[in-house]
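User: I'll paste a sequence; please echo it back and then give the predicted structure.

Assistant: Echoing your sequence first, then the prediction.
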Amino acid sequence: MIKESIYQQYKDSVVNPALRIQIEILDEDYHKNKQKHMDSFQKIIEQFLQKTTKENLTHVHLSWLRTNFWLKQELQYTLESFNENWIDDCKPDIEYFDYTWLLPYMLKFYHMLQEETTRKFAFIPKISLERAFYEAFPIFQQYVREVIRECLLQVQDSRLSELNFRVGEYHGISELMYTGQRTKENPRFELIHRAPQEYFAKDVSDMPAESLEYEKIILPKIHFNHCKFDHSIFKEGIFVGSHFEDCSLQNCSFEFSFLHDANFSRANCQGTNFRSIAGNMDLACAEVPSYYGISFREANLSGCDFRLAQLKGVDFTGANLEGAKFFAEQRRYFPFTAKQNSQIHWMREEEIA
């Protein structure tokens, strides 16, 4: 075994750069082909529900089998159905299936690790390389989780209204993706998906609407193109998956809003309040921008307030952070450039006001 400090250096210089490259490519694929992936999983789930003979069916669980990658370099998943006893049901129906969508990206990442480890950290034992890949595995699988989260809203099966559908490597720590009863087990899921259908839109262009006051508004998955929302209040809103590219959002407030998968590329957000936003899902990697984070690529974030913001997976590439407020302890979590580090106003926790 090597010291943790050496392993962290290895992650910083080899693992995270390789992971960033593959996640960026995968992320582009996800957004371009999301409906295709949703349709594939919808078919798998509907076929499984048709086949299962489980009486009093109340739970369905999807797992990924991490060990199959090491043994066969394959990606295999299981679907299991349970009765009301959940994991105490001794005879769940089980079906194994292969799904190769993520495999090319994960293989490429693994090969990049091998090459860069040999070139830069030849003294690192193989077990450290395998540990790094093992830790990255759930980051890739999060894309499957999100595809399933959305495709479940399209599944055509009457029994789904009575089901709890969970996804994760292990039953005991899996995440509730869908529940017909809408329990409070996963309040974040409930909050995101309580929006009525009429709020969903495809494209809102050139909308001049300055000084709006829309606290707690629910507007997910909307494309706001070149809109002007300066001096508007969007506190405690839900903008999951919405796009604000090239918008003007000067001196706005998104405080306490849900913003994961939101895109602010090239937006002018000068002076905007992003304090305490929820900008990521649970297992996102802080060092790797991804679907679960927010894109601020080439945005003007001068004077913005990011204190207490949850920003795992955020992408600040090319962003202007002149005078932006962050707590000093946030410095080590995100891949700021040297220029961005010098632009940011680093604050202490006691400077919360």
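Residues 182-203 have pLDDT under 50 and may be disordered. DSSP finds six helices and nine strands in the chain.
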